């Protein structure tokens, strides 16, 4: 618990009232880690906790099959138009034979996982511990809950052959540009990235074009993105740029037994 003093010029009687703010142990731990150098013992123990996060993720996701990750806002309710679109995205990807991977939470993530589940596809999630206690959505066949955002982001990218980015906030932008940077610098293969929602992404596309004019990115970098309003076009683009180029094929959705087996 953290006490925070709140000042109010209109009511001096309340100026020193402590306000209790809930901070999850995971958030407090990560903030402690990011505040700067600590003792060697503390740094070593933190490294072990981070490795444990990776191993837990590897155990859950090792045999889920080729994935496509869907990024997007956690804030859209079931009646939001983009929720419906994300369900269609999940269904379309599953019908291609991909496992649908998301951040495992509500909103766009839930919708994509739900769409996969509704057509008998496989649905997995990498959830994150947050002060708001984000819970895994109910449409996941498998999920792992992680303590560190950078571990989560790595796992969402590691197992995927394509990325669909729906409208979202700062976290979605972070995931988009992480994926784009890794492809641009050839740290990963040239996997397709699809932005769904032309109007929503219009200003971002304009910014990227300004970057091209300024010489900070290459004109060819614009070809790394497809911007569309059509789920059918998005799915066709992913089919064209993943299945044949990376020699993907359908295989039985069985879970092998090994030291990486899910808990």
Helix-strand layout with pairing:
Layout: E1 2-5, E2 18-21, H1 25-34, H2 40-61, E3 67-71, H3 81-96, E4 99-102, H4 108-118, E5 123-128, E6 142-146, H5 149-158, E7 160-165, H6 170-184, E8 193-196, H7 198-214, E9 225-228, H8 231-243
Parallel strand pairs: 3-4, 3-7, 4-5, 5-6, 7-8, 8-9
Antiparallel strand pairs: 1-2
Helix pairs in contact: 3-4, 3-8
Structural descriptors:
Rossmann fold; two-stranded antiparallel ribbon; alpha/beta; disordered N terminus; 8 helices; globular; 263 residues; 9 strands; 7-stranded parallel β-sheet
Can you tell me about this structure?
With 263 residues, the protein is of the alpha/beta class. The protein has one domain (52-243): Rossmann fold. It is 43% helix and 16% strand. The protein has eight helices and nine strands. A seven-stranded parallel beta sheet has the order 6-5-4-3-7-8-9, with helices on both faces. A two-stranded antiparallel ribbon has the order 1-2. Helix 4 (108-118) links the parallel strand 4 and strand 5. The chain is globular, with a radius of gyration of 21 Å.
Helix content: 40-55%
* Poorly predicted tracts of residues: 1-23, 252-263
- What is the ordering of alpha helices and beta strands? EEHHEHEHEEHEHEHEH
* Shape-level CATH architecture: 3-Layer(aba) Sandwich
Give, in spatial order, the strands making up the sheet with the most strands: 6-5-4-3-7-8-9
Q: What would CATH call the class?
A: Alpha Beta
Return Rg in Å.
Answer: 21 Å
How many alpha or pi helices?
Answer: 8
Main sheet attributes: strand count, strand direction, barrel closure = 7 strands, parallel
What's the overall geometry?
globular
User: What number of domains?
Assistant: 1
Share in β-strands: 15-25%
Number of strands: 9
The end-to-end distance, rounded to whole angstroms, is 32 Å
CATH topology: the name is Rossmann fold
**What class would the helix/strand composition place it in?**
alpha/beta
